Amino acid sequence: MKLTDRVPLQATDNTTRIRVPGGWIAMVAGIWALVALYVAQAFLPKNVIHLPGQEKTHDIAFVIAPQGWAFFTKSAKDSEYVPFRRQDGAWGDVRLGPHARASNAFGLDRASRSQGIEGALLLHEKDLVWHPCGDATSAADCLQQAAVTKRLKNRSPSPTVCGRSAMVEMKPVPWAWRDLLPGTHTPVRAAVWDVEC
């Protein structure tokens, strides 16, 4: 094979060119954008956008493009259960997360993951009594009003919740109200215990 037999890297005068009209490209892009919009609307919660025939395309979208993100992620609207401990007369958050912090070796230390299991074990004790937080805007305010309801034994092999402790259910502040409240979560209810480790 000679050097001149190779395919040229640059267009030469004798190459064939295909012209695609710009209208065709715009039409195909528009169709795909419309399909993507219908599929997205099928999986989004109710909102102000309503497309014609949206109800009919809902079932089709679930068959053609199923979105199973719940397998990988937790809903951002779900409550979080945050562990607290009373030290020196004040309540303090004892979460080890977020998991990717430098103190957790950027995810290599698994202690922050095991703390969730520890909290679940405590929350599944029998006769758990919850104290409603009412109008409290912070977990500390809610915990000041709550009384110790039970003595528990922490069965975790590496306990992080010991002594006068509590678990507070925190609900995320809806995005539309983000400027009306000081934090990102509001307390819903709290359970306060004396935990033996």
Task: Supply the key terms.
197 residues, alpha+beta, 6 strands, elongated
List the secondary-structure elements in sequence, H or E: HHEEHEHEEE
Low-confidence stretches: none
Structural category is: alpha+beta
Helix fraction bin: 25-40%
Ends distance:
80 Å
pLDDT averaged over residues: 83
Number of strands: 6
Query: How would a textbook summarize the main sheet?
Result: 6 strands, mixed
How much of the sequence lies in strands comes to 15-25%
What's the Cα radius of gyration?
A: 28 Å
| Mass-distribution shape | elongated
Number of helices: 4
Keywords: Membrane, Transmembrane, Transmembrane helix
Transmembrane segments: 24-44
Pfam families: SdpA
Protein name: SdpA family antimicrobial peptide system protein
Explained architecture:
The structure is a single chain. This protein has 197 residues and is α+β, with helices and mostly antiparallel strands. Helices cover 27% and strands 21% of the residues. It has helices at 22-43, 54-64, 111-123, 139-145, and strands spanning 80-87, 90-93, 131-132, 148-153, 163-172, 185-196. Strands 1, 2, 3, 4, 5 and 6 form a six-stranded mixed sheet that branches. A hairpin with a 2-residue loop joins strand 1 and strand 2 (90-93). Helix 1 (22-43) crosses helix 2. It is elongated, with a radius of gyration of 28 Å. The chain starts with 21 loop residues before the first helix and ends with a strand. The model has no long low-confidence stretch (mean pLDDT 83). It holds the Pfam family SdpA. The chain crosses the membrane at residues 24-44. Keywords: Membrane, Transmembrane, Transmembrane helix.
